[in-house]
Backbone:
């Protein structure tokens, strides 16, 4: 388990600067949390709780950065304190182009409550999951 914990710590320490570590941080944090439950299945020890809280904070930080209109978002992650997470796609889609409309439309579609999306940058096929080919970005 020690190599996984070290990999997770390395990814979290570079989450602000390296896109590769942002990509791996959630998977590694969740793996550490799950592996902690092998030795503490009743989740009675503080390190197990800390592992799950860290994984939740990483997931929330990545989600919020993807929803932000622009700039990095400030998040608290475990013992690393406050970090700034930037969404790597944000630079390509430009300022003011949040993923929030897509997320809401997809959740509504999953709940059998489809909604119409009027957007110049969001094709109607995305929230309806009816695309067959790749779209130009």
Residues:
């Amino acid at each position: 388990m020690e190599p996984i914990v070290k990999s997770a710590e390395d990814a979290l320490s570079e989450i602000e600067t390296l896109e590769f570590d942002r990509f791996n941080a959630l998977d590694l944090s969740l793996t550490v949390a799950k592996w902690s439950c092998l030795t503490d299945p009743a989740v009675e020890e503080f390190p197990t709780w800390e592992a799950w809280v860290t994984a939740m904070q990483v997931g929330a930080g990545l989600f919020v950065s993807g929803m932000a209109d622009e700039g990095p978002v400030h998040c608290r992650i475990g013992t690393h304190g406050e970090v700034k997470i930037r969404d790597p796609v944000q630079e390509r889609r430009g300022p003011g182009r949040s993923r929030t409309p897509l997320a809401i439309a997809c959740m509504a579609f999953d709940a059998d409550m489809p909604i119409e999306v009027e957007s110049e940058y969001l094709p109607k096929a995305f929230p309806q999951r009816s695309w067959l080919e790749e779209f130009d970005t």
Notes: The chain has two domains: 2-89, 99-128. The CA atoms of residues 113 and 137 lie 27 Å apart. The longest strand covers residues 73-76. Helices lie at 2-13, 19-39, 46-67, 90-93, 100-110, 125-128.
